[in-house]
Amino acid sequence: MAELATVARPYAEALFRVAQAGKESYNLAAWSDFVSELAQVGDHPEVQAFARNPKVSDSEAAAAILALLKSPLNEEAKNFLAMLIENGRISLLPEIGAQFLLLKNSLEGAADAEITSAFEMTDAQVAELLKTLEKKFSRKLNPAVTVDASLIGGVRVVVGDEVLDTSVRAKLQQMRVALVS
């Protein structure tokens, strides 16, 4: 995966610079939506196989991928996609999307937070948890909440490379380690 990240980085950085210089009609938020959607489409194995098919021309591959996108596109976005297809770089789309999101979050002083809870959380509970977590991590957090009953209770939060695990499962594992050693 390190090779993908290395090859994808210049594409993500160039796209980010274009997005920052964007006009009002196609600003950073619109670019972010486009890149996220493009990463999801590009991650699909059938899309990658279609784009790599030697019987499919570059323009056909671009048209097919464009047809799968819901985001409104400007000429720069279409050119970016055409250039990736022409250079056989469709497999980089998920990594380009991830790196673009990191650049956007860095600019905004934000980070993505993967919150895993033992039980379904209401919007109010998530908002209260976010308020506390934003103080702890000293930045704005963009939450992605999932449910994992194996946690037994509590939550597990991953922000970048930092992990805050207050789940019952983690506490039981800590007790087990303490008792065994």
Quickly list its features.
four-stranded mixed beta sheet; 181 residues; single chain; alpha+beta
Strand fraction equals 5-15%
- Structural class call reads alpha+beta
Strand tally is 4
Please bin the fraction of helical residues: 55-70%
Listing every helix as H and every strand as E from the N terminus to the C terminus, the arrangement reads HHHHHHEHEEEH
Identify the overall geometry.
elongated
Amino-to-carboxy terminus distance: 36 Å
Biggest sheet strand order reads 2-1-3-4
The poorly predicted ranges are none
Q: With helices defined by DSSP (H or I, 4 residues minimum), what is the helix count? A: 8
Mean pLDDT: 92
Q: Profile the largest sheet.
A: 4 strands, mixed
Rg, nearest Å: 20 Å
Can you describe this structure?
- This protein is α+β, with helices and mostly antiparallel strands.
- The protein has eight helices and four strands; from the N terminus they run ααααααβαβββα.
- The protein has helices at residues 2-20, 28-42, 45-52, 58-68, 75-86, 93-108, 123-137, 168-180; strands at 110-117, 140-147, 155-159, 162-165.
- The protein has a four-stranded mixed beta sheet with strand order 2-1-3-4.
- It is elongated, with a radius of gyration of 20 Å.
- The relative contact order is 0.12.
In short:
This protein has 181 residues and is of the alpha+beta class. It has helices at 2-20, 28-42, 45-52, 58-68, 75-86, 93-108, 123-137, 168-180; strands at 110-117, 140-147, 155-159, 162-165.
What are the SSEs and their pairings?
Elements lengths: L1 H19 L7 H15 L2 H8 L5 H11 L6 H12 L6 H16 L1 E8 L5 H15 L2 E8 L7 E5 L2 E4 L2 H13 L1
Parallel strand pairs: 1-2
Antiparallel strand pairs: 1-3, 3-4
